[in-house]
Design goal:
Shape: globular
Order of helices and strands: HHHHHH
Helix content: over 70%
Number of strands: 0
Radius of gyration: 13 Å
């Protein structure tokens, strides 16, 4: 519901609370990172936090492609292109719902 209203700041708090209660739910980490990446005004610290959330989600469930895609997006914004390339290729290998965007982003950094 908070996504629909684009209330990402509030959603971040909600997902932080959910993670505190269930830290092993990869989905919560992914949604938290996604909210951070959707913030209209982001600082580099926000991006580092998104990267950490996504790495945790991947650690919990390494078989999903979407966290790798989002990780690649964040790493591109941090100008960490080698790491981003790996993450985006892994997203394509595992399958991601962002396939076109993943390919397009890969083309721009390689």
């Amino acid at each position: 519901q908070l996504f629909g209203r684009a209330d990402y700041s509030t959603a971040i708090g909600e997902f932080e609370a959910a993670i505190a209660m269930q830290p092993s739910r990869a989905t919560y980490h992914v949604f938290l990172a996604q909210c951070i990446l959707l913030l209209p005004k982001r600082e580099p610290d926000h991006l580092y936090r998104a990267v950490e959330c996504l790495k945790r989600a991947i650690q919990i469930n390494p078989r999903k492609g979407d966290p790798f895609h989002l990780l690649g997006v964040a790493l591109v914004e941090l100008d960490r292109k080698d790491e981003a390339t790996f993450a985006l290729r892994k997203a394509l290998q595992l399958g991601t719902s962002h396939r076109k965007e993943t390919r397009r982003l890969l083309e721009t950094i390689t």
